């Protein structure tokens, strides 16, 4: 009888230990940080610009869509980086503004792939070399705490982190930081205004982050400036 009790207790201990290890492994998988400089990531940018052409009685709306992604490696000053490219698609609408029944004219142009920057990541620090430069700059420090100034290349006004939350994408959770300018910054993604933009007041500059993709799973970034909620295009 005592032998049976000992065997039962050993079984329960081993079973509980196994479950704890399994739960720990699952928790570690979910809580793994999202690495920004990775070929698993894609950024979808959306924006529009309106221009009134009085001379030709035309209201022009240009819709700009960009897809950013990493592909391949490069050496700059003997340091290894990943190469970031973007694809651009422009949609242009012309419509007579003096006649409400005027039909819009549509034009579209798809540009070839363009190289934009080389980037690398060292723990929480992300560095980049722009395509027209050969010196490295700090893109962002993702070691971010509540109440601190966001260490981000385009945080010109030294905005601080006022709230910290998270959003789920697949089996991962991405930390979301609200700033004192009421805009957002994301772990492994960057700013709600896109990869290389300062926060702007004027929407006419166009091109804001609307969707992020990680390992073929997309999530809409509804805090993107004037970006439709859950706007995750197929381009």
- How much of the sequence lies in strands comes to over 45%
Sheet with most strands: strand arrangement: 6-5-4-3-2-1-11-12
Radius of gyration: 24 Å
Query: Largest sheet at a glance?
Result: 8 strands, antiparallel
Structural class computed from helices and strand pairing: mainly beta
Number of domains: 1
Order of helices and strands: HEEEEEEEEEEEE
**Mean residue pLDDT:** 78
Helix percent band: 10-25%
The end-to-end span amounts to 69 Å
Key descriptive features of the protein:
47% strand, 235 residues
Give your account of this protein's structure.
- The chain has one helix at residues 2-31, and strands spanning 41-53, 58-76, 79-95, 105-122, 125-130, 137-141, 161-169, 172-179, 184-186, 190-191, 208-214, 217-220.
- The chain has 235 residues and is mainly beta.
- It has one domain (35-220).
- The strands form two sheets. Strands 6-5-4-3-2-1-11-12 form an eight-stranded antiparallel sheet, with no helix packed on it. Strands 7-8-9-10 form a four-stranded antiparallel sheet.
- It starts with a helix and ends in a 15-residue tail after the last strand.
In terms of topology, how is this protein built?
Elements: H1 2-31, E1 41-53, E2 58-76, E3 79-95, E4 105-122, E5 125-130, E6 137-141, E7 161-169, E8 172-179, E9 184-186, E10 190-191, E11 208-214, E12 217-220
Antiparallel strand pairs: 1-2, 1-11, 2-3, 3-4, 4-5, 5-6, 7-8, 8-9, 9-10, 11-12
């Amino acid at each position: 009888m005592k032998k049976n009790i000992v065997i039962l207790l050993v079984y329960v201990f081993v079973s509980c230990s196994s479950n704890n290890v399994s739960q720990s492994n699952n928790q570690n998988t979910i809580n793994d940080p999202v690495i920004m400089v990775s070929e698993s990531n894609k950024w979808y940018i959306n924006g529009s610009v309106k221009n009134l052409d009085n001379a030709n009685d035309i209201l022009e709306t240009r819709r700009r869509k960009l897809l950013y992604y990493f592909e391949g490696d490069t050496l700059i000053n003997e340091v290894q980086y990943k190469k970031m490219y973007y694809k651009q698609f422009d949609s242009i609408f012309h419509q007579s503004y003096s006649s409400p029944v005027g039909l819009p004219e549509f034009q579209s142009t798809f540009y070839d792939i363009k190289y934009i920057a080389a980037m690398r990541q060292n723990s929480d620090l992300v560095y980049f070399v722009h395509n027209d430069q050969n010196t490295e700059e700090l893109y962002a420090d993702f070691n971010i705490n509540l109440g601190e100034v966001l260490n981000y290349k385009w945080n010109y006004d030294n905005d601080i982190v006022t709230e910290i939350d998270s959003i789920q994408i697949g089996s991962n959770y991405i930390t979301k930081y609200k700033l004192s300018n009421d805009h957002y910054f994301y772990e492994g993604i960057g700013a709600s205004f896109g990869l290389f933009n300062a926060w702007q007041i004027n929407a006419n500059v166009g091109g804001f982050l609307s969707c992020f993709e990680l390992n073929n799973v997309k999530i809409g970034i509804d805090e993107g400036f004037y970006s439709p909620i859950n706007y995750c295009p197929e381009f």
